[in-house]
Structure formats: C-alpha cells, structure tokens
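Regression test attached.
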Amino acid sequence: MTAYIIRRLIMAVIIIVIVTILVFCAIRLLPGDPLIIFLGQNANIEQMSQERIEQLRHEYGLDRHPVVQYFDWIGGVLRGDLGRSITYRDNVGKIMAERFPVTLHIGLTAFILGNAFGILLGIVAALRRGRWMDTVVTIISYIGISIPVFWLGFLLIYFFGLKLRWLPITGYVSPFVDFWQSTKSIIMPAICEMITGMAVIARQTRSAMLEVSRQDYIRTAWAKGLRERYIVVKHMLKNSLIPVITLLGIGVGMIFGGSVLVETVFAIAGVGRLLVTSVFQQDYIVVQSGVLVISSIVILSNLIVDISYGWLDPRIRYG
Amino acid sequence: MTGGNSTTFSEAPPRVSEWARFWRVFFQRKIVIFGLAVLALLVICAIFAPWLAPHDPYRGEMRDALSQPCAKYPLGTDIQGRDTLSRLIYGARTVLVVGFITVGVAAVAGVVLGITAGYYGGIISMVIMRFMDALMGFPMMLLALLLAAVLGGGIQNVITALSVATIPGYARVIHGLTLSIKENDYILAQRAMGADDRRIMLSHILPNSLPPMIVLITLQLGSIILAEAGLSFLGIGIKPPGAAWGAMVSDGYGYLLTHPVLSFAPGFAIMLVVFAFNLLGDGLRDALDPRLRGLL
C-alpha cells in the first residue's frame, strides 16, 4: 500500500510537471513577440524603439534560453510568485487569493449537494426499478447531462429572479458579511454547477446498485430474512459506491470547468470569471496561472480518489 | 451435403444474427426513435438551411426589431431584427461542423496514440499515457479557454481546442482495449503466420475495439456540442454575424424579462440535440455490449 501511494504520488508529480510544460509552451506559442505575454496585445510593441524592446526583454528574462525561462517561472510559482497581471497591475497570487474563496464556496456546496442528491436519486431509482420513481430519476439525469449549464442559469434567473423575485440574479455575498444573503446568492449558481455531476453520479449509482443486487450474497442476505434497510445500507450501498467514488475526482474537474460558465452567468467575481475576462483582456499571466492552479487541484483530487479507492475496497491489490 | 452433416448442424445452438439482435435491442426503447428523429431534423436543417429558413439569418428588418413571436416570426426577432427561427436553423450547421470535425480529428488521433501505446507498451506507452493524463488534468472548458486565449477565437480554433481536449478520452479507452485484445490467441496466431505489427493493429485490434469506440464517439458528440455552446456563450467561437446557439442564448440576456424566447429557444435546441446524442449513445451501448448478450 505504501509503495503504491509513493508510486502514485510520483506519477502525480510527473503529470503536474507535464501540465506546467504544456501551459508554458501554450502561452509561448502566441503569435508575435513574446513580450506581449507581459505587456499585452495592445502594447504597440512595433512602435517602441529597439533599445526599449531590448531593455524590456532583459527585464522579463526573455533574452535567456527557454529552458532557463521555464525554470525561472517554476521557481517563482513554487515560491508563490505567479507573476504580475497587466490589467490589475497587481500580483496574480493576490488576485487569485481574493477570488478563490468565492469559487470554493460555491463549488464545494455544489460538490457536496450534487454528490449527495446524485447518490440518493440513484439508490431510489435502483430500488424502485421500472416504477415511476425510476422513470423520474432517469428523466432528471438525462436532463442533467444534456442541459447547457449557462442556459439553466438563464432559466433560473428568469423564474426565480425576475418573475418570482425570490433570489438575487447577480453577484455574490460573503457568508462572513451576511450569512442569509450569502446563502441566497449562491443557491442558483450552486444548482447550475451541481446539475451535471448529480446526473452522472445518479446514473452510475443506479447501475452499480442494480449490478450488486444481482449478486449471490444479496440473495443470501434476503434469504437470511434481513430487513430491507439493513441489506440496502450494509450490503448493497457499501459495495456499489466504490465505482461511484472514481467519479468524484472527475466531478471536481467538472465543477471548476462549470465555474467558468456559471460565474459568467451570475456575474460572480470568482476564479472562473477571472479566467474568462483575462482571456479577453489578453492577460496571459493570469490565464497561465489560473489554468495551472486549477489543473493541479484536479490532478490532486484524482490522486486522493485513487488512493482512497484501495482503502475502501480491500479486494483491490496494488500490484 | 449428407444427412449426417445436417444433424451435426442442427445440434449447434440456434444462430442468431448479430444484426438482428442489434436492431432488436437498439429499438427496444422507443425513445431512441425520438433521438434519431431529432438528429435527422438537425441534419436536414443544416443541409437545407437556405431553403428552410423563412428569413435572412444575418440581415434583419430593423423596423421588426424585438418582435414577439407572431405569424411572420414564429420565435420573434432579436435587437437587430433578425429572425430567431432562421438563426436557429443556420446554427444547426455550426453544431454539426464543430461536432463532427472535432470528433473525427480527436478519434483518429486518440486511436493512433492509444493503439501505439497499448501495443508496444514500455517507455512509449509511459510517455504517451502520462501525456494524456496531463491533458486530462485540465477540465475541458479550461483547456479550450487556454487554447482560445493563445489561438484567438474563430471556428477552426474552437475545433482545434475541443479536439485536443477530447483526444485523451479516446486514447485511454483504446489503450485499455488494446491491452486486453493483444493477449488473445488469434493475435498470436496472426503473428505466427507472419503478420507485421501494422497489420495486426489495423486489421485485428482496431476492428475489435470499434463497438466501444462507436459508443464513446456518440456520447462524446453530446459533450462536444455542450462545450462548443459554452465557448460560444462566452464569446469564443464563430465570429458574428454567424449563428451559434450558445451565443444566441448569451445575446438574449438583456431581453430576458421582455423577450425570454430569444434565450430560451436556442438553449432548448442545444439541450434537445445533446439529449438525442445521449439517447443514441446509450442505445448503442446496450446493443453493442457483448456482456449484455442474452440478457437483453
């Protein structure tokens, strides 16, 4: 087990290193002078004097070998220095730190509720297979995997924001400022971010439960005269949740991917919105850092899922 | 043919045509027909857009701007007086072009990488698969956003971004399939008969991994269409005045209270098409999965 964890850790580190190389190369593929990474597309580099360009190039270390530049950048990232944003004229680390709690608050709420409801719906559907409850869950999960989240956001805004006026249509309030208002402000964004994950989890739970219910030990449990609740919770659920756990890591990725859209719909100043605006403002340092941070989180979540997998299922051997 | 031979044949289990079983299982759920109908409609809209669209999708009548749904404009018009229905019909082209080109490029690249990694193993597999893992570490929207930032908007760049983002999915699946298929005795037999690596990969491993690939491709089409819609919603993708459903949803934001149909109609179209691809994918999976043979 320890050897497996160590090997898996090394693997995760390798993957993160490849991610950093990809991000580094992607940003440097920009057409034109690499100076625009630091100065932005609107800097009118063509009109600068040759000396000024050379001076700036030296300032940002662009006159050095790309490999040296890469290690410079990584060294900075490891020290917590993500570079400076050209639009915010501030440290990217600081900008991200301001926005991260917002994304995390909504994302974590969506993650917990989405998985809880997803598992619950999956169980109900499997236990009532072929009945109307099963049909309802199947419809919900088909809608969940097919609906564009930004459009769901618009529907919610229209009905609960504009028509019924129950919920605020834009913005985010910190729970430390006003807890009630904060909760109201994240209801619709959280629903949008959780819907896809919930649907996927419900489908997986349902099919895993059905798979388990055909096993011999479940028949034995029924034959022993155990109560339904006991069989469902102790025998079926425990065994069918293992494949569901694999999806949790993917769920983290889906939430972050979704935050890009959802924070745009509800005009919430989180990391997702920051990335979108930075793409349009050609603030490449912010895009580069944001993508790097989020990918690292996704990779680490998958690592945790992989490790907990073996801990939950003793049948899995780490060969 | 002697009588003795026919008795041995009759003792064999009854032959059931694979195709017959496929059709039976595939159409067992009637809703699959609905999915096929939606996709047929989509293809018809895309091909015959100029004849089907009642109005010009790009140039509207300014005096008819923001008209409510009526006989002339069944789904109303936007701020520029452009007919929503016509733009929806033309938007079907964007959906199909982006969806199919992306899937084609990504599936071919993913299959080549996955088969190579699975067949040769060792350091080649290590390099390719870790690279794929790294790509998988990016949520699809983020990778697309990063590439869009670098390459700029435009439909080709959206296709590039989404292809790159979906390659690892194919590579992983086919890698796993190759690993199990290449252990079969018929592969060994082929090798004994002197078949080279390329022949084994193309004529044996590839056809045997097609059924799961077809299912994956169908389901991927749904998520690619969602991602394309998301990108065009954010303003990355087909340039105006081109019609993309995601962008139409976004354009309707300012008129949500007075003209909700401007956002609701294109969003519903996206959902319907993605739903159809998901139905089709699930139907194909049930019909093609050999483990379900006899059960369904």
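Expected vs. actual: identical. Residues 2-78 of chain A form one domain.
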